[in-house]
Amino acid sequence: MGFDSFLGNAKAVGAVRELLARGRMPGSLLFTGADGIGKKTLALMLAKALNCERRGAEGDDFCGECSRCLKADEFLASSAEDLARRRAIKDAQKRVEGLLYFDLQLIEPLTRYILIEQIRQLRSTAYTRPFTFPRRVMIVDQAQAIHWQAADLLLKVLEEPPETTTLILICPSAYELRPTIRSRCFTLQFAPVEEAVIERVLAEERGLGKRELALALRVVRGSIALAKTFELKDYLEQRKPWLALLESVARPSGRAPAPQQWKTLFDATKLLAEGGGHLEESLKTGSTLLRDLMHVLLGEEGRAVTNVDLLPRLKEWAPALGLDGIQQLEAGIESSYRQQNRNINQQLAFDSLAAEVLRSGPRT
Ligand SMILES: [Zn+2]
User: Fold this and answer.
1) What beta strand segments (E) does 134-241 contain?
2) How many angstroms separate the most distant Cα atoms in the chain?
3) Residue 362 pLDDT more than 90?
4) Spacing, Cα 1 to ligand 1 middle (Å)
5) CA of residue 20 to ligand 1 center, whole Å
6) Gap from CA of 51 to ligand 1 centroid (Å)
7) Ligand 1 center to residue 56 CA distance, Å?
8) Ligand 1 centroid distance, CA of 346 (Å)
9) Ligand 1: distance of its center to the CA of 226 in Å?
10) DSSP label at residue 334
11) Residue 103: is it exposed, middle or buried by C-beta count within 10 angstroms (0-12/13-18/19+)?
12) What pLDDT score does 251 carry?
């Protein structure tokens, strides 16, 4: 346990540890960089290090085992559950009712935005004493989504740093935040995790062989978080109905599918609609395939294609679907994505999508 277990981004980790060792932790930090490269993980580790009962000889580490380290995990899990519960509430106004912040709090968008009530609650909590921790840590993930009204309020907190609270803002790029906000934060830029590190995780922790690695590396795309949980078997399984769907709709010009092909198509849409209980994941897989088809269509096959093991089939499908077909399917996935929590018949939606793509007729 401790910072040594963090993979990649040695510079960022080194900077955090140095600040800890010198007892010079800034009141507000900004972690920037792509998704899945460990920003939130390092924020959690920092929260532990600020509160751990066994911080190591240099005072720049955490044990991961003391009651406070365990409590930090618990707080983070509780905030994540609370966010999920609130996002499921239909009426967006009601999502912010009765907000209560823990000593370690994760704040994320509840609609498209992080709302003013969320930042108001952050502000009113930040200046009070934490309940169980010596130091409260508030992690604002996707800080670029802070509503403009809420940004003014956050700025006030940054201008008068609370004594008991450390703020960690996380976003893809510092330039997505107002200059007034980013200039008041100590910024740590995270780099994509080196392919060699990801490859080692996939090989050693996920047990992938050389041939499987090529595909896996592209699916996880530099994300250490995805690499650590990647299941090749599940990915291939999830991809199957999408391949059946594409096979059925990517017709050479003018030819309608034979009856057996309709059956294959409906079996595929049924599987897709069920999504194996993971509709969102499945839709992402579908989007990736469509992006691949687009790359192939535009002749950018090189490193851009994710499903590199399917290249020959992608090359058949891409011209058969054409730009219009690919875009129709993309729009269909987008609409399923938006409606996934509503009680609609997803299979019917996929069926009519497929029919629509087929109806669009011959392509050259
Ligand atoms: Zn500890």
Assistant:
1) 136-140, 165-171, 186-189
2) 73
3) no
4) 9
5) 14
6) 7
7) 9
8) 46
9) 26
10) H
11) buried
12) 76
Taking the centre of ligand 1 as the mean of its atom positions, its distance from the CA of residue 45, in whole angstroms, is 10
pLDDT band with cut points at 50, 70 and 90 for residue 222: confident
230-254 average pLDDT score:
86
For residue 240, report the distance from its CA to the centre of ligand 1, in Å.
44
How far apart CA 269 and CA 348 sit, in angstroms, is 8
Residues in the chain: 364
Measure 19 CA to ligand 1 centroid, in angstroms: 18
CA of 152 to the centre of ligand 1 (A): 35
Q: What is the SS3 string spanning 255-317?
A: CCCCHHHHHHHHHHHHHHHHHHHCHHHHHHHHHHHHHHHHHHHCCCCCCCCCCHHHHHHHHHH
Ligand 1 ion: nearby residues, β-carbon < 5 Å = 52, 62-63, 66, 69
- 195 CA from centroid of ligand 1 (Å): 31
Contact 39, 190 (CB under 8 A): yes
Transcribe 19-54 into DSSP letters.
HHHTT---SEEEEESSTTSSHHHHHHHHHHHHH-S-
Q: How confident is the model at residue 10 (pLDDT cuts 50, 70, 90)?
A: very high
Q: Distances from the Cα of 79 to the Cαs of 101, 141, 278, in angstroms?
A: 8, 12, 22
**Centre of ligand 1 from the C-alpha of residue 25, in Å:** 18
The values of phi and psi at residue 166, to 5°, are -105, 130
Cβ pair 326, 293 in contact under 8 A: yes
The owner of tokens 């050479």 is: 252
In this structure, what token pair is assigned to residue 302? 């090189």
Taking only the tens place, the pLDDT of each residue in 119-156 is 999 999 999 999 999 999 999 999 999 999 999 999 99
- pTM (two decimals): 0.75
Say if residues 140 and 109 touch (Cβ distance below 8 Å). no
Q: How many angstroms separate the alpha carbon of residue 69 from the centre of ligand 1?
A: 4
Q: What is the 8-class DSSP label of residue 146?
A: B
For residue 51, how many C-alpha atoms fall within 13 Å in the half-sphere facing its CB? Answer: 30
Q: What pairs with residue 106 in β-bridges?
A: 139
| 265 pLDDT higher than 60 | yes
CA 74–ligand 1 middle distance (angstroms): 13
